[in-house]
Design brief:
Elements lengths: L4 H11 L1 H10 L2 H8 L2 E2 L4 E9 L20 E8 L1 E10 H6 L4 H26 L7 E4 L3 E4 L1 E3 L11 E5 L5 E12 L4 E4 L4 E3 L4 E4 L10 H4 L20 E3 L10 H13 L6 E4 L1 H13 L7 E2 L5 E5 L2 E5 L8 E4 L4 E11 L9 E2 L5 E14 L6 E3 L11
Parallel strand pairs: 1-19, 13-22, 14-17
Antiparallel strand pairs: 2-3, 4-21, 5-12, 6-11, 7-10, 8-9, 8-12, 9-10, 14-18, 15-16, 16-17, 18-22, 19-21, 20-21
């Protein structure tokens, strides 16, 4: 029997749906732990009441004095929406027809496309889960009528990535510009098309992602960002503990790490893991060697080896913001998920569908989720740390 569209759909749905889920949940150490904490949603918005204040109408009195005025506990509701991540592939009609007598050849072609899609979806998700929901991947320096642009950090840009340039008021001034080259040492990107001019407050996002990305750890760890409908400026209890040094880099130390943990615990947090960049981890490892202290790496379930501090695992990620460590209470953070990665299907349950007007077929995967926290001051951001030499920021 010919390998037709119906057979192709069976390959997509039966042979590749399971492995996609498994790879996305396990390849990234931080994402893996966030997914383990996932909260399955029943609606696109969640509501959680927060207890933030005590009944302060208590106190000692002299004999016969008036009793304290009655008071009450204080509550506030927090809420957030899931965000929507998509990825798609296309296969031409001639490709399907040419392989109609060789199912194995078609499966290999599909597998190649699927592995690329899995990698790219995972990459986008992992980057976003370290961000703040805005999609910002770098801020520009002043660049005047050029195609090679200086940025403040280079690690989030990729050759072939399409970016939008956004000004300080949140207006997209350039859209769909493709990055054709990167210079990590000089922190420059080269884009296609006409030369552009940027201000020092302009920034870049992946095309179409402005304010559409899932909330990430970076947003939770910001003391100024409004999060889940609550403004920390008027609700100071809704701030993470932030230990900064006024923007001046300082060396990592065990004393600073101890302070970060204790600060969260004084607010009722229970830190159980730490995240950081490769450069800060290298600086911490050098500190241990400098102090003539050998620390055997902690071996986690599954055989993963990580550095540790006071029995807490330290995870690194290439998308972690440079010059900082995040101390996380995993009991107060969840990946709120309306849908895990799934195929977009038509009313007949088919994932692979004709593209109107073209001799090709397309399939789309999607995921609806966002990161939430229930006690923001249970976490600590240790800022302004010096990266080890040679690490790109």
């Amino acid at each position: 029997m010919a390998f037709d569209l119906a057979a192709a759909n069976a390959v997509f749905k039966e042979d590749y749906h399971g492995p996609v889920r498994e790879q996305l949940n396990n390849d990234n150490p931080v994402t893996k732990r966030l997914v383990q904490n996932k909260q399955e949603a029943t609606g696109k918005r969640f509501f959680v009441p927060l207890h933030y204040g005590r009944n302060n109408s208590v106190g000692y009195r002299a004999e016969g004095a008036a009793l304290p005025t009655a008071g009450n506990q204080k509550y506030k509701e927090t809420t957030a929406n899931v965000r929507y991540l998509y990825g798609g592939i296309e296969i031409s009609g001639p490709t399907i027809k040419a392989m109609r007598n060789d199912k194995g050849a078609f499966i290999r072609a599909v597998e190649s496309e699927m592995k690329g899609l899995v990698r790219d979806l995972k990459d986008q998700r992992s980057r976003a889960l370290f961000g703040d929901g805005t999609g910002r991947i770098g801020t520009f320096a002043v660049n005047t009528s050029v195609n090679t642009l200086t940025v403040d950090k280079i690690k989030y840009f990729q050759i072939g990535m399409k970016i939008d340039i956004v000004n300080n008021s949140g207006t997209v001034t350039q859209t769909g510009r493709t990055i054709t080259n990167l210079d990590k040492a000089n922190k420059t990107i080269t884009i296609d098309g006409a030369a552009v001019t940027t201000a020092a407050t302009d920034y870049a996002v992946v095309t179409g992602d402005l304010n559409n990305e899932a909330m990430g750890i970076g947003g939770i760890m910001s003391a100024s960002l409004q999060l889940q409908g609550i403004d920390p400026a008027s609700n100071p209890w809704w701030k993470p503990s932030v230990l900064a040094n006024g923007g001046t880099p300082r060396a990592i130390s065990q004393l600073l790490m101890r302070q970060a943990i204790d600060t969260a615990e004084l607010e009722g947090g229970k830190i159980d893991w730490i995240t950081t960049s490769y450069g800060v981890r290298a600086a911490y490892e050098a500190l241990l060697q400098q102090n003539v202290r050998y620390t055997k790496p902690m071996t986690l379930e599954g055989g993963e080896n990580v550095l540790e501090y006071d029995g807490l695992p330290i995870f690194v990620d290439r998308y972690h913001e440079s010059n900082r460590m995040f101390f996380v209470d995993s009991g107060e953070i969840d990946l709120y998920q309306l849908s895990d990665f799934e195929w977009m299907e038509d009313d007949k349950g088919a994932a692979l569908a004709p593209v109107p007007g073209y001799d090709k077929y397309a399939a789309t995967m999607f995921c609806y989720e966002t990161l939430v926290t229930y006690k923001r001051n249970a976490h600590t951001a240790l800022m302004d740390l010096t990266e080890a030499p040679g690490y790109a920021v």
